[in-house]
Amino acid sequence: MQTYDLSAPTTRSELNALYAKMRNEPGLCRVEPFGAYAASRYEDILVVQKDAQRFSAEAIAAAAEPSWLGHNPLAHSMLSRDPPRHTQLRALVSRAFGPAGLARLESVVRREAEALAESVVRQREVELVDTFCFLLPRNIIGHLLGLDPSTFPEFKRWVSSINLIASATPEQYEGIRSAVREMKHDMGAVIAERRRKPGEDMVSDLVRAEVEGSRLSDDELMSFLFLLITAGMESTTHLIGNSVIHLARLPEQFEQARADKAHIPRFIEEVLRYEPPIQLNFRMAASDVELSGTKVPAGSLVLALIAAGNLDERVFEQPEQFLPGREKGTQHLTFGQGMHFCLGAQLARMEARFALEALVSRIRELKLRSPEIEWIPNYGLHGPRVLPVELIPA
Q1: Rounded distance between C-alpha atoms, residue 278 and residue 271, angstroms
Q2: In the predicted model, is pLDDT for residue 211 greater than 70?
Q3: Which of 99, 143, 221, 311 lies in disulfide reach of 319, CB 3.0 to 4.6 Å?
């Protein structure tokens, strides 16, 4: 069985070429630095994402809670739970992300996007990640949770620290432990306050939620808040950032987005396929299993390489081309499949859509101030670390 090193490619094109080699292997591959089995073809990834009996999500817990860290609520969220508890937890929290909940949020997201776009366009030359791409999902999550805006500046440090866990060096350990402690303290205070005095916010809704006589414990609430803050901010930040990069590099796409708002959702779906903010999923073989002729021993780490599957020529015609509105354009793997399909997928789409609408309606040109993008150093997440741009007002 061939082993591939995911750290070897130095450019996106080199990584995509590596994925193509992996898809042409007769079965699964092994990958470093994880020492894991990897599914790189679309159909194999579907199986890994959907078959919770054979491919357990508990691998996420192991990755999120190394021995040097101690207890990490994120490791015990529903993201790392298998049925039946995952089913119960999802039922308890899913109502907040249903059509009615999103409809209530729509005006808030639009208002925030308009205000942030107005601010960055006035600056003209601006670093867009910290001033726009991150601030929109940060402010929306803060609003959802009913938090005081004075606490919002802490989110960036918390999220950045938690996302370092899998690749942290010993020099970073204490900073990450400190961030987790602070987040637990502050979110614990929020939960306690909502139990004493519920309001009109998601935490209060979760405190009141009941399905078949079951309610969320404080630990389960804490785990969900950790998941919402980290996943809800980081992935949407990178979706918006990756979208801006493609608007800047593809002037015809920018002009289409300016001319027709209906083009923007199609454009976002293609960004999700072509430049996914989530690059892979972790799973663990629950027993000895076989996939595409490869025998995987029980307890082995298995990676579903989303970014590779989204480029599978067996499913997508001309997968290396950026083609919004393509056939099967919404059938990408980025939000997962089956029971672990991302609860916040529609919210992320809404935030990205309103962000791009607000931005392109205010400018006649979008320029990257550097031809080279400085990407975040993370195997699982993909987006710009910084994004210096020039915005030419309309």
Answers
A1: 11
A2: no
A3: 311
